[in-house]
Amino acid sequence: MLDFSLTPEQESLRDLARKFARSEMAPHAAECDRAARFPEEIYRKAHELGLMNLNVPSDLGGSGLGVLDQCLIVEELAYACGGMTTSIIANCLALEPILLGATPEQKERFLKPFCADYHLASFCLTEPSGGSDAAGLRTRARREGDHYVLDGEKCFITNAPHASLFTVFATLDPERRAKGITAFVIPRDTPGLTPGKDEDKMGHRASSTSTVHLERVSVPAENRLGGEGEGFSLAMRTLDQTRTPIGALATGIAQAALDHAAKYALKRVTFGKPIAEHEAIQIKLANMTQAIRASRFLTWHAAWTIDRGGKGTLESSIAKCYASDAALAVADEAIQTFGGYGYMKEYPVEKLLRDAKLTQIYEGANEIQRTVIARELLREYA
Ligand code: CAA
Predict the structure, then answer these.
(1) How close is the Cα of 266 to the center of ligand 1, in Å?
(2) pLDDT digit string (tens) for 176-190?
């Protein structure tokens, strides 16, 4: 039997995240958005509660959760603030290549001290020149004896100004595209590694994003993840794991938008009755509800697939792509339900639209998700 019920453990994880989101995050969401403030005190509390390094096994100091458990938490956090949630879960993205590609010794060395206290890590794949074309990245790694020297520039890197650990993808030979790419773990205090200034973003303004400049950064060979040329596969396998929680993040934003819209529609009176009684508004609310349910179930299905040992490439791209498109559409309809008030910053829904927009872009633009979906699909017909 297909079962949508959650275990008591999952219910309590969700309750913990909901309580934290509504009592600690939500009250500060508007202010952090307005001021583009990075609320480190909130992120520290998330770490204390075990809401940060979700995917890291508990013997290495993380929460040791499966992808479905992560999604339950992420949806609750994103209901309160998409930007804060991005910063809270960025460690999962940055640490996943270590979980997938590190030796037991490297896991002990990098993950244990990292997870024991509050620390942030950044995943450094994207570059100014290539963007979506990850195999075309230009950051060079040159072997010199027992270490590598890295030179290049990364962009749109979540949490970089505050991170103490960076997983960096560089190429030994750009001509070899995917087969030249190699992954490295680089501590923040390594000379030559410099995060840029915080980007001034449209949404997710409680999160921090910057470039990372690498100039003659010397990385010991013992900090290489996997073999030379195995970095691209590590990056792709990482994204297979982490795109599903982005579906949950988008679903949380969309659920918040629907809740605001429905409550407003019951209160706001036009033509002598609450607008919730006008068919035009009911159709909006019904469409929003359908989109959110579909997003949640696609996300849960992708998570379930991965938790059962599946690769999840197809399912995670479907979940991420569908839920993020839905979140933008739902936030847009929420603004429309509020009418002119929805366009004003005094009301909460315009932030949701700005936050939803990024979910269509990061962790692989939705155009890339559609490429992945089509490739996976066509393989079944070939
Ligand atoms: N798992 C394992 N291996 C994979 C894989 C996967 N999911 N996908 C591809 N590969 C392998 C292929 O099998 C192939 O190996 P072989 O040559 O041995 O057959 C190799 O990798 C190259 O694959 P492709 O030929 O498919 O590569 P491509 O150049 O056509 O690109 C792509 C594939 C899917 C478009 C990829 O470039 C991609 O995903 N781009 C988007 C990158 C992205 O998501 N960036 C976001 C970064 S995170 C972020 O947003 C920042 C943040 O902080 C939030």
Answers:
(1) 46
(2) 999 999 999 999 999
